[in-house]
Structure formats: C-alpha cells, structure tokens
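Exercise 7 asks you to align residues with tokens for two separate proteins.
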Amino acid sequence: MIELPVQRSQLRPWLVCESGSRWLTASRRFVPAMMPPPLSASIIPVMPDRITAAISGHRQAVIVWSIQSDDLVDRVDRIRAVSIASPHVLQIAAVTDLSAPQRTVLSELRVSVMMRHVEELPRWQRLIQGYFADSLKHLD
C-alpha cells in the first residue's frame, strides 16, 4: 500500500522543550498514534527561548515542557508568557523532581497535564484528540 504524503494543513506542531531527549523520544514513540486522523504531529525539539517563535502563526500546538527544580523559575516564566500570548496552545508539564508545592505553582498556570513518567503520555490520548477535534472541521 502506498502511503500519501501528509498535507501541510494536516500537520500540527508538537514542540518538546528539554535539555535531554527523554520526552522527545517518548513523543516520537507515542504521539503519532494519539493524533486523530487525518492529522499528524510534527514533533520538534525546541529550545525554551525559541518557543514563542515556534508557535507563531499556529492555531493549535502542543508544548511539552521538561521541568526540573533547577529550571522551574525559567519554565514558569515561559509557560506564563505562552499562556498570555497564545492561550489556545495546549501545554504539558513533564515534571520529574518537583515537590508538591512546586507542582502547585504549575497547576495555577495554563498547564493542562502534569506527568512524571514517559509511559503516562498515551493515557492522555482522549485529551489530545479532543483538543484537535475542532480543527478537523476546518481542514482543506
């Protein structure tokens, strides 16, 4: 069976901000199956200081923020900036070593999901499909 190339109108950015590759690898593994057909994810590693430029012009996007206690302040500032400038973006926090009070800070921002382990990502398939459901009505 010949697979047709994905049309640009069917691609949705899935941006991963982390210093390593743990969440990028997990996204590449799990996200394609989580997207509602005919949409596809364009999974891209992005440095936190480039996130605003990366989501510019997109009606929908998902950002996975890898957050550790030593970069919490910077990530909170960037999450808040995205929440204000682009409230339509779905933000996911991948928290590994945060305390309960630190996680509470994130819960007060527009973070839709907090995960500790990469294996949790597929559990959010219904949320992801629901988020992208509206765009299925407007495909070319």
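Second protein for Exercise 7:
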Amino acid sequence: HEVVSRRFRRYLQEKLKTGEWSPEDGDDGQQPEDDGRPRRFAYPPQLVVVDGGQPQVAAAKRALEELGIDDVAVCGLAKRLEEVWLPGEDDPVVLPRSSEGLYLLQRVRDEAHRFAIQYQRNKRGKRLKAGPLDEVPGLGESRRLALIKHFGSVKKLRQATIDQICEVPGIGRKTAETVAVALAQAVPAGPAVNTATGEIIEDETPASAGAASDRGTEQ
C-alpha cells in the first residue's frame, strides 16, 4: 500500500505539471520543485502487477482508490501456483502453463526480482569495499587503489613503514604519514567468515575476500 501510494503520487504530481490533473481531483496536490532531472513517472502504466495474492492485490487497489486513480488495472501473481488474482475476486484466475499472457506476467515479476536483488548486491558491495583508507583526508580513489595494488591488502599496508609507503607512485611523505596514522588508529575489522562453510577467509586481497564473502552470503 505504501509503495503504490508513493509511486502513483509522483504520477499525479507529473500530471499536475502538465495541467492534466488538479488538486481537486484528489490527493494533497503538493508539487515538487523542478530540479531539471528527467521525470521519473512521465506516463502511467496500464497494468500494475503485484507480487502476491489476494491481500496484496487488495492493498494495491485500495492505494489507487485513495488517490482517485481508476484507470489503471491491478492484478497479482502468486508464485506458489502461479495464480493470477484480481481485485474483489474470491478465486484466482488459473491460466494454462503454455499461456503467453502468463509467461509475460512471469517475466515482469522475475525482472522486478532481478532489479531488486541487483540493487541490494550493489549496496552490499559498496559496504564491502569501504575501509579505513576511505577516512584518510585528501586520499582520493586513485591513490587508494594504488596503495592496495602495491601492498596487496590493507593488512600488509598497515604493517608497512612510512618509507615503504612513500615508494608508491603519487604518495608523498606527508600523505604516507597521514595514511600510517589513520591505519594505526583504525580498529581492525574482524575476520571475514564464509557463512556457508564457517571457514575464516584470510585477508590477503580485498577483492578475493569480498568475492568469497559475497558467495557465502548468497548461498
């Protein structure tokens, strides 16, 4: 209900900009400032497919009705038996397994899952890449990568002397001292663990550790 309400409120705001809709038609009529970015909801869909059964479809339909939107159809696809649910119906529509319409709904549902999963993986990947070097003032991404490439891991970089850090191209003595102090003050993270096997992953290279941790999480 919340997601559908938020999404279609944006649609009404876009219609308000073009004069196709007025606050008297429903909702609060609040219009966001034009920040120059492309419109996120320039036109309405003809069908909203909900990932779920009768309760989820009823919630989506209620959200649309509260916004005064009555020209968008709603249905739900329950994954267990691939049943199609329509608002207000007590029984689902069971399409043949060979139905092209059912295949289309499945593809829509699967694409939504893929998009959401990829988004979460990207967020998790950013967290895995974050480390003590991110907090060093004036140390950009290119020089952080150069340090990791030169030493192989944050663990080995922490053990290096200031003179050894200065050997990295683009790293002056002042920057090397700042890096050394930052790493000395940072609390080392606990060992990464493969959640599938319980095995402790050695911190040799951030890339391999992150990939192994990621694989364990997925499993």
